[in-house]
Amino acid sequence: MRKLVTVVFLFVxxxxxxxxxxxxxxxxxxxxxxxxxSLQGSFVAQLISPxxxxxxxxxxAYQKFVGTAQTNRLFLFDHPPTVRGTGLLLHAFYDGRxxxxxxxxxxxxxxxxxxxxxxxxxxxxxSDFTYRDLIDNDNSQLDFERLPDREIDGVEYFVxxxxxxxxxxxxxxxxxxxxxxxxxxxxxxxxxxxxxxxDELLKVLRAEELEDMHPYYYPTVLSMENVQTGHRxxxxxxxxxxxxxxxxxxxxxxxxxx
Amino acid sequence: xxxxxxxFAIVVLxxxxxxxxxxxxxxxxxxxxxxxxxxxxxxxxxxxxxxxxAPEFSGYNANLGVEWLLAPRLWVEPMSAGEVSSRSIDPWxxxxxxxxxxxxxxxxxxxxxxxxxxxxxxxxxxxNVVGGANRAPLSLDEYFDSRRPDALVQLTVYPSFVDxxxxxxxxxxxxxxxxxxxxxxxxxxxxxxxxxxxxILDNPHSFFLNYSRFGDRLDLQLLYxxxxxxxxxxxxxxxxxxxxxxxxxxxxGAWAARVGNGTLSQDIAFTLTGDLDGSDIGGKNSALTVxxxxxxxxxxxxxxxxxxxxxxFPNHGGHPSGSFQDDPEATAYLAEEIQGFHLQPxxxxxxVVAHFERTFLREKLKxxxxxxxxxxxxxxxxxxxSYSVSDNLMISAGADINLGDPPQEDLRRNPWNDNxxxxxxxxx
Lengths: 258, 428
What we know:
A: alpha+beta; outer membrane lipoprotein receptor (LolB), chain A; 13-stranded antiparallel beta sheet; B: mainly beta; 4-stranded mixed beta sheet; 50% strand; globular
C-alpha cells in the first residue's frame, strides 16, 4: 500500500512538474539537450522545387560554443562548382554584440567581412533556410509566450511562441513570430513554424531524424518547407563528430586555406 | 615563328600537366564566348570569339606536410578583333598559378606563382599592387582573364588567431598585358611600341610587407611595398615611345567594419613614383588614393555595393611646356595621352562605381548591373544576366555601354567601345 502511494505520488508530482514547466525551464532544458560543445560533419542540402527539380549543396560544417554568449560556425562549400572553395565563417553573439561574418571568395582570393543576414532576402544559397536560421536566436531579443501543449502522432509537445521585442528585432529576426514544438520527453525541437509579417504561416521546419548522442540529441535530417511556394529543402548531416575542434579552425586563416 | 610558339606551348603544357597525375583534387572551368561591337558610330563588329579552359590540380603530401596547386590556363580565339584574325594564349601565360604551400603552426611558406590580393576594395584598390594585370579587357569586370600573377616567395607569420604578418618577395615582376601592336600617336607624330618580354628584367626584386587583422569588430590591413610596377612609364625617343618599368613605393592601410545592415571599408594609400617633381612627361605621377566602399543589402533582396574612388596627384602637370621636340602643342597632346593612360587626367579625380545584383529562381537566375559614374556625362553601364542550366552549366550575357561620345585618346587601354557578349560556362 505504501509502495502504491509512493508510485502514485511520484506520477502526480512528475506530471505536475511537466505541466508546470516554465518557459525558462523549457528553453534551458532544450539548450542542455542540444548544445553540443563541439560538432563537425558533412552536410548535403537538397533544394526541391514544387516541380520536383532537385539541386544539391554540399559542405563541411564546424560548430563550437565559446563561453555562454558566443557560437562559432564555419562552412566550407564543396558543391555546386560555382561555390566550390567558398568559405563562410560566423561568430554569433547572444549578448547584444553584432555578429561577425566573413566570406572567402576563391575567385578573387579575398576574405571579406559581410552582413549576410538579409542578403538576397536572407536565404542561404537558394535554400529555404535563411542565414538567420543558421544562427541561434538571441533570446534576450525575444518575448516568449507559452501556448497550449499539443500532441501530434502520439508525441506530446510544449509549444512556445517567440516574437521579436521591437519592430527592429522582428525585422532582424526575419519573421513576425515563430512557434516551436519541444518534445516533452527530451526537449528537442521537432517542429518549428515561421510566420511572415502578415502573420501568415510561411515555413515549417521539421526534425525528420534525431541521433541520440547521450547526453545530447542532434537532428541529422532537417526539412524546411515553404508552405507558400511549395519549395522544400532537406538538410542531411553525416560523419558527425563531437571531438573538440581547435579554436584555430574558426579563424580567417583556416577559412582561406581550405 | 608560329611553329616554334606552338612547340613551346606544347612543351609547357606537358610539363605542367605531368604533376597532375598525382593530384588529389581536380577542378575545371571552360567557356565559349562571343563579343560583338555595337558602338553606334562604328557599326557592328566581331570583336572576339574565345574558347577558354582552366583546369586546376591540387594535392597534399602528408609525409612532407606540403600542399600544392597547379592551375594552367588555355585559350584560343578563332575570331579576334584588330590586326590578327585569330590568336591564342601567350605560352608564358599558360601557367596561371603553380605553387607549393607549407603550413606550420604559426607560419606558412608559399613558393611559386600565385595571385596575391591586398586591401579590402575589389574595384581600383590602391593596395592591390602585387602582380600584373590584363589592362585591355573587353569588359571592366573581366573575371577569367584579369590577373597576371608573379612568381614569389611568401612567409606568413601568425602571432595570434586574428593577426598575421606577411612578407612577399617577387624576384622578377611580370608586366601588365597591354594592347597588342604599336599605337600611333598622330598628334606627336610618333608611336608607342610595346615590349613583349614575359618578365621585367631591369628592376629585379620587389618586396611587400603586410599586416592583417581580422578582429572582433574591425578588420585592418597595413601595407608597405617597394616594388617594380607592372604598369609602365614611357621612354620618349625621337621617333618612338617605349615602355620602361620603374620602382614605386606604396604605403597604405585599409579597414573594414560592419555598419548596420552592411559593411563599410576604406583603402588609403600613397604611391611614390620616381618622377618626384612631375617633370617627366612619360612618367606616372605619385598618387594619394582613397577608396571607400559600402556593401549593403537593399530592400527587395538586392545586394548593392558602392565604391567612391578619389585620387590626388600632387606632382601632376609639372612637365615644362615644349619639352617634347620643342613643340608645345605636341607636348600637351603627349602629356594628355600618357596621363590618360595612367588614369591621371587631372590633378584630382573622383568616380563612383556601383554594383547591384539580385537573384531569382532560388539563385539560378542572377541579374547584375555595374554603373561607373565619372562626374561627367560619360557613364559606364554594364548589365549582366546569368542562368544556371544545371550545377555545371551556366549561360550568361551582358553588355558594356558607355554613354556619351567614345573617348578620343589614342593611347587608351581598350580601343573597343560599346559591346555585348554571350557566354556558355562549364564548371566542374
